[in-house]
Amino acid sequence: MAERIDGKAISAQIKDEVKSKVSELKNEGIEVCLAVIQVGNDPASNVYVGNKKKACEYCGIRSESHELPESTSEDELLELIGRLNADAAVDGILVQLPLPEHISEDKVIAAIDPAKDVDGFSVNSVGALAVGKKGFRSCTPAGIIELLKRTGIEIAGRECVIIGRSNIVGKPMALMMLEQNATVTVCHSKTVNLRDVTSRADILIVAIGRPKMITAGYVKEGAVVIDVGIHRNENNKLCGDVDFDDVAGKCSYITPVPGGVGPMTIAMLMHNCVSKYL
Ligand code: GUN
């Protein structure tokens, strides 16, 4: 039976490290501040934004909340970002996605000062990652690297297969695993014989967005399985992209849903808010 990777415990450890850094900075008269922008009232975004604010409170980071109506224009949002860019008291700017359809996410992300892009979504941040320069790292894949390292899992030289090529998870994940010297393969909807590819993986990272799609038949004996998916099943219970009960009998380590990758995203966001002071 696989060992569970405890994302709740590891994320708590990271938040405590951030909290202690924030408290040190407070003693030096420095206050850390994250500006959180939400446009509209998407129910999932309400939950995510609420959790981000709670994490800020726990860590001692001031969260400056900008809750804008659905009718906000792109120009109004860009103007707010411009003001926050210029505000020396603001360390990080987070624009919760998705945005309403009349606002271009690309334009909004591009408007954020790269020095405040704590989500790590900008072309600048992703470009820095691609060429191995310092910069903000996208929180979910950075959290997965922390899960692996803090669990003592060797990455260098191992076969890593990632399913999913999104800008937020799959692509930056591939670059970060490459940076850790893994041999990396990225699979996607056009991949032929997916099972053959995933069965080679020592570390399998699944971000497909389809509930319980990955069963034991996709997994090599003894592999490490990381599940990025989060869904509600027919009984309203949370589940991932991986069929946990089926796969746990075959792999060596596995992340549960909930309590695996999920809590790491916010922990790494907190980390990014203080990283310039580390
Ligand atoms: N929407 C879903 N996940 C995220 C995230 O990590 N950051 C932002 N800004 N929006 C999201």
Give structural notes.
This protein has helices at residues 7-27, 43-59, 74-86, 105-111, 123-130, 139-150, 170-179, 194-198, 244-248, 262-274; strands at 3-4, 33-39, 62-68, 92-95, 159-163, 183-187, 203-206, 224-227, 231-232, 238-239, 253-254. The strands form three sheets. Strands 1-11-8-7-5-6 form a six-stranded parallel beta sheet. It has ten helices and eleven strands. The mean pLDDT is 98. The longest helix is centred in the N-terminal third of the chain and has 21 residues, at 7-27. It starts with a strand and ends with a helix. By secondary structure, it is an alpha/beta fold. Guanine (GUN) is lined by residues 94-97, 119, 139, 265.
Topology:
Blueprint: E1 3-4, H1 7-27, E2 33-39, H2 43-59, E3 62-68, H3 74-86, E4 92-95, H4 105-111, H5 123-130, H6 139-150, E5 159-163, H7 170-179, E6 183-187, H8 194-198, E7 203-206, E8 224-227, E9 231-232, E10 238-239, H9 244-248, E11 253-254, H10 262-274
Parallel strand pairs: 1-11, 2-3, 2-4, 5-6, 5-7, 7-8, 8-11
Antiparallel strand pairs: 9-10
Helix pairs in contact: 1-10, 2-10, 6-7, 6-10
The structure holds guanine.
Characteristics of this structure?
16% strand; 278 residues; alpha/beta; binds guanine; single chain; globular; 6-stranded parallel beta sheet
Q: How many strand elements?
A: 11
Question: What is the oligomer described by this structure?
Answer: single chain
Which geometry do the CA atoms define?
globular
Distance between the termini: 39 Å
Order of helices and strands: EHEHEHEHHHEHEHEEEEHEH
Estimate percent helicity: 25-40%
How are strands sequenced across the largest beta sheet? 1-11-8-7-5-6
Bound ligand species: guanine
Stretches where pLDDT is under 50 for at least 5 consecutive residues are none
Q: Could you say which structural class the secondary elements and strand pairing correspond to?
A: alpha/beta
What is the radius of gyration? 19 Å
DSSP strand content: 15-25%
Biggest sheet character: 6 strands, parallel
Number of helices: 10
Q: Mean of the pLDDT scores? A: 98
